[in-house]
Every structure is written in structure tokens, then in C-alpha cells.
Amino acid sequence: MFDDFAWVGHDLYVSGAVSSHGGNMSVRLAGDRLLITRTGSMIGRLTPADLIETTLESCGDERDAQCSVELVVHRAIYAATGAGAIVHAHAVNTVARSLVSDEIVPVDSESLLRLESVPVVHAEHTIGSAEAGAKLAAALRTRRVAVLKGHGPFAVGETLEDAYQAISCLEASCRVLNILAAIRPA
Ligand SMILES: [Zn+2]
Q1: C-alpha span between 125 and 178 (Å, rounded)
Q2: Distance (Å) from CA 186 to ligand 1 centroid
Q3: Residue 117: CB atoms within 10 Å
Q4: Distance CA 95, CA 118 (A)
Q5: Which of 94, 109, 119, 140 has the CA that lies 20 to 30 A from 152?
Q6: 2 to each of 8, 67, 95, 118, how far by Cα in Å?
Q7: CATH for 2-183, among 3.40.50.1390, 3.40.225.10, 3.40.50.970, 3.30.1340.10?
Q8: How far is the centre of ligand 1, averaged over its atoms, from the C-alpha of 102 (Å)?
């Protein structure tokens, strides 16, 4: 399990989908529990101590303070979907598109095949926000990935690799859209 976190985290950082201490990931465990990255961890250089186990539902576990500040969002998504894993990143082309579009519609073949259109959700508070969690959870009932405006994508999958694929594919798609906007002004 740790190896999956380690290589996905490494690739998230190396690909530029997160900055040094950004992003977070979790997996659903048996017995209504989850495993999530530690708040403040370097996602590209995770160690076993950077993974915190806690409950799927909030019940005041003292370890929650060690978890990513996005624990509230991960819990909302698990409660609303059958996701086995969640990956969240700050991929810059995706963040930029989220600031100008309410829906990201890929134009490249790979993303059209894998993602179709991607919803952008708005929340007043965009970090560790229950409002954002509810809106993302609703969007992810029927989609692999949704973007919190100005913050970044949250993707679900059966595994971390599944969810990471959606993050990576969307970022490539947004890069194409941003290049097109630069060379073909409206
Ligand atoms: Zn974030």
C-alpha cells in the first residue's frame, strides 16, 4: 500500500501537478477506515510516517489533526461514492482553466475518450471546506474527476493509479486548451 502512495506522489510532484508540499491522497480501507497523507507532507517524498489511518466518518479521532486538511473533502466523497481512492492536485493548467470555465470540455482525443466533460465547482472557502466537500462529492457521483475553482482537481478511482490517471489526463487536456487559447484568440 505504501508503495502505491509513494510512486503516485512522486509522479504528481515530478509532473508538476503539485508544488513541494501540495496535494493529498487517500485510499478506502476495510472496516470503515481510510488512509490519507499527513498534513504538511512532501507528496513527492513520502515516508510511511506520512500516511495516517483514521475513520471514514468524523468521530473526533485525535489523529484527524495529523491528516491532510482536505480530510473533510475526502470523507464527503467516500460517503457519496464507491471510490476506492482519491487523488487531489494543484495542476496549474487545470487551475487556470477552472478560473475561466464552469465546465472543462477537452478537445484532444485521449481526454475525450477518458474524461468527457469535467465539472468545475465553486465554494466560498476552498481549503478544508465542508461546502466544497459536498459539492465535489455530488459531482463525483457520476464523474471520475471534478475541479474546485481556483484550487485544483479531485479525482476518484478504484486505486490511486486510476485516480492519478484522471488528474494527469485532465492536466494534459487543459494544457492543450490553454495553448489553443494563446495561439487562437477568441
Ligand atoms: Zn489543495
Answers
A1: 26
A2: 30
A3: 11
A4: 12
A5: 109
A6: 10, 16, 28, 29
A7: 3.40.225.10
A8: 19
The residue ranges of every structural domain in the chain are: 2-183
Please give the pLDDT value at position 185: 64
Cα 36 to chain center, whole Å? 12
Tens digit of each residue's pLDDT (9 = 90 or more) over 104-148? 999 999 888 888 899 999 999 999 999 999 999 999 999 999 999
**Phi, psi dihedral angles at 59 (to 5 degrees):** -145, 30
Distance CA 72, CA 110 (A): 32
Q: What are phi and psi of 62, to 5 degrees?
A: -65, -20
d(CA 170, CA 93): 9
Q: At 73, give phi and psi (nearest 5°).
A: -75, -45
Q: Is pTM, for the whole model, over 0.70?
A: yes
**What is the 37 CA–ligand 1 centroid distance (Å)?**
12
CA 89–ligand 1 middle distance (angstroms) = 6
Q: Would you mind telling me the total number of residues written for the chain in this entry?
A: 186
Q: Tell me the C-alpha to C-alpha distance, in Å, between residue 76 and each of 44, 70, 163.
A: 25, 10, 16
Which three three-digit cell numbers place residue 167? 488528474
